[in-house]
# Entry
Amino acid sequence: MSVTVYVPNDSAAIGIGANATAQAISKMAAERGIPIRVIRNGSRGLFWLEPFVEVVTSEGRIGYGPVEAQDVPSLFDARFLDGGPHRLRIGHPESIPYLAQQERLTFSRVGITDPLSIPDYEAHGGGRGLRVALQAPPADLVEEITKSGLRGRGGAAFPAGIKWKTVMNARAEQKYIVCNADEGDSGTFSDRMILEGDPFVLIEGMVIAGLAVGATEGYIYLRSEYPHAWVILLAAIQKAQDAGYLGSNILGSGRRFELHVRLGAGAYICGEETAMLESLEGKRGMVRPKPPIPALSGLWGRPTLIHNVMTLAAVPVIVDKGGAFYAGFGAGRSRGTLPFQLAGNIKRGGLVEKSFGVTLREMLYDFGGGSASGRPIRAVQVGGPLGAYLPESKFDTSLDYEAFSASGGMVGHGGIVVFDDTVDMARMARYAMEFCAIESCGKCTPCRIGSTRGVEVIDRVIQGRQRTENLTLLRDLCDTLSSASLCAMGGLTPSPVLSALTHFPEDFQRPPALAPGGRASRTIRRH
Amino acid sequence: MDSRLQANTSPTVPGTPDPLATIDSVIVAMRSLPGALLPMLHGIQDVLGHVPGAAVPRLAEALNLSQAEVHGVLSFYHDFRTVPPGRHILRLCRAEACQAMGCDALETHLQKRHGLTFHETATDGSVTLEPVYCMGNCACAPSVMVDGEVRGRVTAGKLDQWVQQWRANAGGNP
# Structure
């Protein structure tokens, strides 16, 4: 009988050698005449252990990591296919505290199943939500989503139930479900991990959404920076089609849902929902004024339910187990779980799905183990490039939408980027303005012009020229950006800038000689 | 003569795709797609490595758009190039998580050691360096994309190895 070996096919694992490891294992097994079956799973999300190899033994799955190709001969010598002892042996993955302390609802199958196997998906609870949905009246589905307390996971945290109800009640010949898979916030990779590690859960979530609101067509707008996810997603859609999850007769019910994928082209602004719609329509990704809201007039002017990957991927478990089950997790008005992502200068970077209400400190130290460099953590940016920089005094804030926003932060997509004490916060503030200048769609003046002026003003501060006056000017400029921009790009760019200024003022008062002179004068180029 | 135009009308090098034929075949294959312009631009760049100027009037004609509209879309998105890139494309992530792990030092290293700057191609045509803002590899920063493949925990030494290899190949195969 052959031994089953799992080697992740997640692009982060591949980026540090998982393909070479998989090849080395197959080659050595062939040389030694041992029959094995290698399954390329998603990642468990424990990236300091990647490439993380798991072997199915009589005692269950046993993990080894990080396994580089050069470690493979010694693993065979140690009889790792029987779970033998080796310096890289981790043991049962589920007993690793990092995993054991999580509450994986959305990520329940990621790293466990073969991402492209429908039988494996169904053996691990997949497809149940869809089967429930096919039997339920649409209004009941919308009611379950409302009861679950699910809010938009892309950043705005808008109650999903309200959106669903609006689209359901809209009258039109054609409605659409659009999945925003252009999550470009630095420090976030949960969308990518689902797309690569359990794409069927997203597909199932979109089909259920379609059944609920009366949409028969869906689009996934995928960022072009995820080429590996693109390949897996296309394969998954084909498999879902073959298995009857998609098409004109979903699981024999006579109901219909068609799904298409479109590739973005490297514009951060297309993560904003109306810019994304423009891009899907083949235009420049320019933000649209609201109203009309996309729920009533979205893609090609039709009622459109837009959610990001995490929101839609939470739908199957909610419909399967009920809104009350999902609402049983969380804190305050933030119900359910959020797949947080630990990134940047962190010892144990990875994916941590937890109920809302965990503190930043628990994330950074209990899960993350402190900085990768071993130096003190000085600043943390939560919620992407438009999120505030938080100092240690804010680390005890509860990670839920309300509490976090009350302390000046933004949970956003749950990305947590860690910086040690070598960070220069004036430079990070400058970068926030520079990023806005590069990525602004150009529709409104404060964002288009203000961001470039912001870079220039911060440069003068760094160079020690009329600091007091320029800092006043900078705050004034931030006020203009936040109050006079159409969307969050211009509206929230001041957040990292002002938080850096408020919490780390000393970095704006360094002797000019120590300022990053060469880089500070770099001109901004959009292309 | 406009250099771009010249490139498009020069005789086809054996083994390389003919630009005009490529553009036309992409248009034929995708013209029934709703919102076809982005997929078409991707389709052309996938084959040719860039979107030649000659594509603009053809796309405009096929999609009933003005040339200005096509140019507007082409120039809006960072991904699309209007000039051919080097034989290899190195994209260095500049986003915050990669900054926290020293991507700025890698940028400086590429410039000082190899003369590579963002948005430019090495004089021997071996490599084009481009910035990228997040590839979802933030727990394994700093990250680069080498010819479409994401690589994590990149060091200056690793970059040297790649660039030197590409340079050596460029010398033997101009």
Summary: Residues 3-100 of chain A form a domain with the Glutaredoxin fold (CATH 3.40.30.10). Chain A has 23 helices and 16 strands. The longest helix of chain A spans residues 467-484. Chain A has four domains: 3-100, 118-327, 330-420, 425-520.
